[in-house]
Amino acid sequence: MKKHDVPQDNSKTYQGQNKLVYAVDESGHYEGVKSSGWEVESFATQLAVDYLNEQTNEALAQAQRGEVSPLAYHMLARRFDIPTLAGASGFFQWQIKRHLRPSVFAKLSDKKLNRYCDTLKISREALLTLPSQ
């Protein structure tokens, strides 16, 4: 993309900020250029955020019905999925999948709960409870 073609669509997802993108200048070299957003990118970002919010709301409903542990909600509310939570917490993915079962989660040791609290940056009380809607 040429420097003068960098989109400046004032994207609401940028919240008034600019993003650094690289474009080709007049002499054919790459140069950093500020962009206030691109409408297409903004639309795709909003779709992704909406999808994540739907997943989070569904996990909350499932946790409230007792189908999954509160960990399922808190994980998604903080934009983790199983692979990223595994990488950040040090648990294996299969362990996290087990911990999503309410009966298993209820028996987790303090040490394991504290690892989740540290990773998710929430208190133990918050991890064990769900927000009311």
Roughly how many Å is the radius of gyration?
A: 20 Å
Beta-strand content: 5-15%
The whole-number mean of residue pLDDT values reads: 92
- Annotation, overall tally of beta strands: 2
Report helical residue fraction. 40-55%
Distance between the termini: 46 Å
User: Main β-sheet: number of strands, strand sense, barrel status?
Assistant: 2 strands, antiparallel
**What is the helix/strand order?**
EEHHHHHHH
> Runs with pLDDT <50, length 5+?
none
* Structural class category: mainly alpha
Given the structure, what is the number of helices?
7
Strand order of the largest sheet: 1-2
| Shape assignment | elongated
Describe this structure in words.
With 133 residues, this protein is mostly helical. 52% of the residues lie in helices and 9% in strands. A two-stranded antiparallel ribbon has the order 1-2. Strand 1 and strand 2 form a beta hairpin. Helix 1 packs antiparallel against helix 2.
